[in-house]
């Protein structure tokens, strides 16, 4: 009897990065708002996108979300070029309010539930209860900070692979910030990747794994927070202030 032939050696190809950008560039006028930006971010990272006003943070997030087209370069989400398929994997919180002020909060939840297959309505109601938001309130009656809480809830209640959060805690009170950062962003989605743009470095640094520093549309640094705390012997907030001292 012939010996069984050896099984061919099979390797499982590594999963593509959740976010991959190559030479990503956006030019509005003469100077690029974002210039040849390169990155690969694997699953499970929480990344702070940091930089002074006008450094290109919103420009970058909009191109990843597919609401703005690059002048040059490429974005891939879980290996997919920007498309309806990639957008289904991305939950995006834009910097400005976008939802209908004429609806009630619970109607917004129902709307998201209908629109997104990955939306978790029970989770959304639970988050709102923790944040002290009345689901029966009319959106037009909400304060600015409460609107932000509702928007962030709608974004984080999706089971997305990639969350893009443009200034998610700028307008909310400090107690709610703690809940949003530690529970919603760190706790609910331990395996998802989050890119979070903010000026509130001191508030967010405890939940970040990595950070990106942008200046004039150019990436200055992409590193783990531990690079600052262990190798530089300081914290991210102090490091940022030193790098961008006016
Ligand atoms: N639609 C637009 N038309 C022209 N220029 C734009 C447009 N959007 C952004 N820019 C310019 O691109 C640059 C980057 O802007 P962007 O909003 O991405 O910066 P940012 O880092 O998010 O700033 P901030 O921290 O103030 O929110 C700025 O110089 C800005 O003026």
From TrEMBL:
Pfam families: ABC_tran (PF00005). One of its GO terms (molecular function) is ATP binding. It comes from the Bacteria. Residues 19-241 form the ABC transporter domain. The keyword ATP-binding applies. Keywords: ATP-binding, Nucleotide-binding. This is ABC transporter ATP-binding protein. It comes from Adlercreutzia wanghongyangiae.
């Amino acid at each position: 009897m012939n010996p069984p032939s050896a099984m061919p050696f099979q390797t499982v190809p590594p999963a593509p990065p959740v976010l991959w950008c190559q030479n990503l560039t956006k030019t509005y006028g003469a100077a690029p708002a974002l210039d040849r930006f390169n990155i690969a971010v694997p699953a499970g990272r929480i990344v702070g996108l940091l930089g002074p006003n006008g450094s290109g943070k919103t420009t970058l997030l909009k191109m990843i979300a597919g609401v703005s087209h690059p002048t040059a370069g490429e974005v891939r989400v879980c290996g997919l070029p920007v498309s309806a398929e990639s957008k289904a994997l991305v939950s995006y919180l834009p910097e400005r309010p976008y939802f209908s002020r004429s609806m009630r909060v619970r109607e917004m939840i129902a709307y998201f539930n209908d629109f997104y297959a990955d939306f978790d309505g029970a989770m959304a109601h639970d988050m709102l209860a923790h944040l002290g938001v009345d689901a029966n309130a009319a959106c037009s009656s909400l304060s600015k900070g409460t609107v932000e809480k509702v928007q962030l809830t709608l974004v984080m209640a999706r089971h997305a692979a990639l969350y893009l959060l443009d200034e998610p805690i700028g307008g909310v009170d400090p107690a709610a910030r703690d809940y949003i950062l530690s529970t919603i962003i760190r706790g609910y989605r331990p395996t998802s990747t989050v890119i979070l743009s903010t000026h509130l470095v001191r508030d967010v640094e405890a939940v970040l794994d990595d950070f990106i520093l942008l200046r004039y549309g150019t990436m200055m640094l992409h590193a783990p927070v531990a690079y600052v705390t262990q190798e530089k012997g300081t914290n991210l907030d102090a490091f940022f202030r030193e790098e961008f001292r006016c």
